[in-house]
Amino acid sequence: MIDDVKTRVASDLAKYRSMMSSDDSLTRLEFDEGSKISMPRNADEGLSVDWIYTIQNMIVARLFRRFIDANPALKINRLTRRRDEKTFCIDIGSQIEFISVLASETNYVIIDPSIQPPGKVLTVEPGMVFMSQEAQSLKFKDGSFLWATSLHAIEHFGLGRYGDTVDPKGDIRGIQEIHRILQRQGIFVGSVPIVPEGQEHVAFNKNRKYSIPLIKKIIEDAGFQIEFEQVGLMPTDMLHRDGQPTHMCSTDEYKQFTDAIPDKARFPESVYVWLARKT
Fold first, then answer.
1. What are phi and psi of 43, to 5 degrees?
2. Dist. CA 116–CA 16, nearest whole Å
3. Which of these, 233, 144, 142, 154, lies nearest to 190 by C-alpha position?
4. Please, what is the angle between helix 212-221 and helix 170-181, to 10°?
5. Where are the beta strands (DSSP E) in 19-152?
6. With the C-alpha atoms ordered 110, 115, 116, 117, is the resulting torsion angle positive or negative?
7. What CA–CA distance (Å, rounded) separates 279 from 277?
8. Is the pTM here over 0.90, yes or no?
9. Distance of CA 147 to the CA centre of its chain
10. SS3 category, 83
């Protein structure tokens, strides 16, 4: 495969050079030693898109928009010079690229235990503050935030994969800490990978996989009331609604789908997304 790519790049380079002329937009040609060929996006194989994260982010973006609309005082009208604005939103362990989109609307603290050295604080244009902390022991006062996100991260808490302390109860403690640092009626939006009931397990040190009843119990036992929930599914021909493949469904539909498929091991990768309120 590597030799095929090198041959293809060399051929394309020779062709490009032979076609160059003085009226091109750029006439100085340099060869990038790191050149590669982007693989085709096969429509029959999901276009090489991580649909679980894509669907999850679409759901959360809509929830965040409603939160900002309901709290207009939090909205920042500029991207720069935001140092004097207060911060009421925090993220623990989510994809930074997605959270940075949310941070375009309001100031955000982003917690990541993999940031070195431990305890490091990094401000990236006032508005996004990165901190090296663990979800299980957040260094904030009780009731510090109005909104917290933790997307596809809770399943990693306490597994040591990202430099955090090994702790079998890391996920439970992390959710309890999120509850502690939220104000009363504060909102917690999260997501975890899910499997049908009976297949819950820890895949050390990659992640945990929960059933919906199990993760809901952990959330509610921490003192949250779930107000919204949605399931996202990898594109598959196994699940249909109104004759079309479905990639989002309710928790009831998810249970119906799983109950109808005898070989649960073949069930498509799925994510449970929730919005819960601190009671």
1. -65, -25
2. 44
3. 154
4. 50
5. 89-92, 108-111, 121-124, 128-131, 145-151
6. positive
7. 6
8. no
9. 16
10. coil
What is the DSSP pairing of strand 121-124 with strand 108-111?
A: unpaired
Q: What is the pLDDT of residue 37?
A: 62
Amino acid identity of residue 174, one-letter, is: G
145 vs 28: CA distance, rounded Å: 52
Q: Which amino acid is at 157?
A: F
Q: How many CA atoms lie within 13 A of 77 on its CB side?
A: 2
List, in sequence order, every residue forming a beta bridge with 245; answer none if it has no partner.
Answer: 240
Minimum mean pLDDT range among 158-162, 214-218, 246-250, 268-272: 246-250
Query: pLDDT tens digits for 213-258?
Result: 999 999 999 999 999 999 998 876 666 667 776 788 999 999 988 8
Q: Are strands 182-194 and 145-151 parallel, antiparallel or unpaired?
A: parallel
Helix boundaries (H) for the chain: 2-19, 51-70, 96-102, 170-181, 212-221, 251-260
Burial (CB < 10 A; 0-12, 13-18, 19+), residue 129, is middle
Instruction: Using the structure block, give the residue that is written with the tokens 């663990």.
Output: 134
User: Which amino acid, residue 242?
Assistant: D
pLDDT tens digits, residue range 182-200?
999 999 999 999 999 999 9
Q: Two tokens at 99?
A: 């959270």
Strand partners for 215:
none
